[in-house]
Amino acid sequence: MIIPIGATPNQPGYIPWINYLLILINVAVYLLITVPLSVQAVDLNDPQVQEFIRSIAQSPPPGMTLPDLLSRLTAYDLFTFLHGYKPGAPSLMDIYTAMFLHGGFMHLAGNMLFLWIYGDNVEYRLGRIGYLFAYLATGAAATLFFALFTGNSMTPLVGASGAISGVLGLYFILFP
Fold first, then answer.
1. Rounded to an integer, what distance in angstroms lies between the CA atom of residue 48 and that of residue 30?
2. Integer Cα distance of 57 and 66 in angstroms
3. Orientation of helix 161-174 relative to helix 105-126, angle to 10°
4. What is the pTM of this model?
5. Taking 70 as the threshold, does the pLDDT of residue 11 lie above it?
6. pLDDT tens digits along 50-100
7. Which has the closest alpha carbon to 59: 162, 158, 150?
8. Rounded Cα–Cα distance for residues 132 and 130 (Å)
9. What are phi and psi of 157, to 5 degrees?
10. Neighbouring C-alpha atoms within 13 Å toward the C-beta of 43
11. In whole angstroms, what is the distance from residue 64 CA to residue 157 CA?
12. Among 81, 18, 84, 26, which Cα is nearest to 49's?
């Protein structure tokens, strides 16, 4: 992977408020939801946990037994199951909530680095509302494209990677 260190042209005096807001929301969700829930155990008798267990029991991750998986289950796993986008149980709200959930710190850091570097120029060129619409639309389009290849999977998709890819695509079109 190539790690960017900057992009041009940066517009003097322009403050990319929407880009900063998107980064802030992603980081806030990570700090206020992901981190606390990642260390919190779940009650295996909770009906939502039972639904999660039924969903993953048929195909646990490779190399893991169901008891191993249950011993590592956290409240964040359950939260992502409930609010990540699942092609087998599609929800319009989950398309958008999934964009602000991440699988870990490095997932968040990589996405936010690319958004920080390229998003400001795209926001400047599209305008604030156009940029926000483009971010959300490309993120939704990427999520739905993912769903085409996963059938009725109940494995949730999380992360802003689709929206970030949309911003990168727009950057490369707008700044050839």
1. 22
2. 6
3. 40
4. 0.88
5. yes
6. 888 888 777 677 787 777 877 888 999 999 999 999 998 999 999 999 999
7. 150
8. 6
9. -95, 130
10. 4
11. 20
12. 81
